[in-house]
Known about the structure:
Residues 1-22 form the signal peptide. It holds the Pfam family Transglut_core. The protein has 5 helices and 16 strands. It is an alpha+beta fold. Helix 4 packs across helix 5 (195-208).
Amino acid sequence: MNHRKLLLAAFAALVLSGAAWYGWQLVTAPQYDSSKTVSYSFVLRNASNRVLEHAEFRTYLPVRQTAAQACCERVEVSQPYTLESDDLGNQVLRFGFDHMPPYGVKLIRVTAQLRMNSQPNKFWRFLPDRYLQPEPLIESDHPAVQAAAANLLAGEPAQTLRGIYDWVVNNVRDIGYVRDERGALYALQQRQGDCTENAYLFTALARANSVPARAVAGYVLDDNGLLQAAAYHEWAEFDDGGIWRIADPQKRNYDGRYSSYVAMRLVDNRPDATFKFSRYQFNGEGLEVDME
């Protein structure tokens, strides 16, 4: 074997060892059978009668890669930005504005063309151990959650997961949007919550039964369209042998409608998470923001 081949072999071994360390398992190239264009916009206002020396604003670009989504074929943003990301595939657009005049207004509009698929792809397993651990608001290690999970344990993982989904659907009352996140334990004990509590409880019960699961935030729309604040939604996904499948108790969707779900954020509530805000985040004295 010549020197060049030795170098190539060493590089391949390094890539494979790194992939194994991160929990990646390449299976096949992902497939997509459609595309979807989404737009969303924000109005930033200096509500004071003074010059705002510096304002910062951050919002999500759709998640780089999920089982049925890839971002992006095309992105158009109306203001200069920098792109930030984390190891889960979350992407954040960061904007900075200097010397905003009194009562000044900035408009930010984002248009993204996504590749979508009607069925989830199987092409990697990503950090599965992370999605087995408890975290704030997903209290899979709490005795009450553990006991409920044990009662739902069935002979096969597929039966267990369907049983968890059915139990959440039938036992957690939807009380509409609640601003403050209350978590899985609250939903279990109070038997109520919004989409977030439904997603967190499913995730916690799945993790307590040793199935990797995660909460995802975004929007559900069948066609191209405008993303609006009131339509913001959270659902759960579980790992089925390298395929992330949807479980959305609030919308009564189990393992279906994949091309309708636009993922904006893979939820990470750990204290050291890179991004812990929901739709957007801003800083600046007197700054007000509305999502249109």
